[in-house]
Amino acid sequence: MTVNCSLNQQVLRTDASGMPMEWISYQQAVRLYHLDVVAYTCGTPLYEIHGGINAITGKRSIIEVNSIIATRGNTRALFRARQRYTPPLNNPALFKRDAHVCLYCGNRFQDKFLSRDHVTPVSLQGQDVWNNVVTACKRCNNHKAGRTPEQAGMQLLAIPFTPTHAEYVYLQGKRVLTDQMKFLLAHFPRTSPLHDRLRLEGKNSLGEPRLSI
Ligand SMILES: [Zn+2]
Question: What CATH number does domain 91-203 carry, 1.10.3470, 1.10.30, 2.10.110, 3.30.70?
Fold first, then answer.
């Protein structure tokens, strides 16, 4: 096997219309090639997998796995399902949505110093949903306690939002390659706050004080 990158590098799978679907491993990608459901590929070649020798032709099969592969399937049904899709809420994705910035003090932190804050606290019937949660450093979260921002005299730096399917695929990515990122960005809503936040992620290292997002 010829490898142009780490074996852990994930492949971005899209549907036949090019809508981002999920991250898969190179093994899963090879399986899709074997199942003959790969419609076309984009991006850069990541892996070259050498298979067995064909008994009739005597030739060895070679599969080139690209960074982005489009697979055939029922696109219209998937599209409809995606319109109604609400991604599951989890802290790693939430912190990434907010660029690891506490939305109260504006400082940037490593995950271990961050927490999920319910803007309207659960004790006041606030829900545990994307639209009601923000990244907060533990200090700000403790200070806010069981109060709304208004009650606590704290100002939210950005409005929480529910990621679209494409945005959530990005939020789940472990190490997103430049070509994969470009592809995903093209599927974000034009008004997505992630456009600005990604520029911020690229420019600043963790720990820089006072970032406005
Ligand atoms: Zn804070």
Answer: 1.10.30
CB 107 within 8 A of CB 210: yes
Ligand 1 centroid to 176 CA: how many Å? 27
Question: How confident is the model over 88-101, as pLDDT tens digits?
Answer: 999 999 999 999 99
The answer to whether 40 and 34 are in contact (CB under 8 A) is no
pLDDT for position 126: 97
- What is the distance in A from the centroid of ligand 1 to the CA of 109? 9
Q: How far away, in angstroms, is 141 Cα from ligand 1 center?
A: 7
**CA dist., res. 175 & res. 201, Å (int):** 13
Give the distance (Å) from ligand 1 centre to CA of residue 152.
13
Distance 107 CA to ligand 1 centre (A): 6
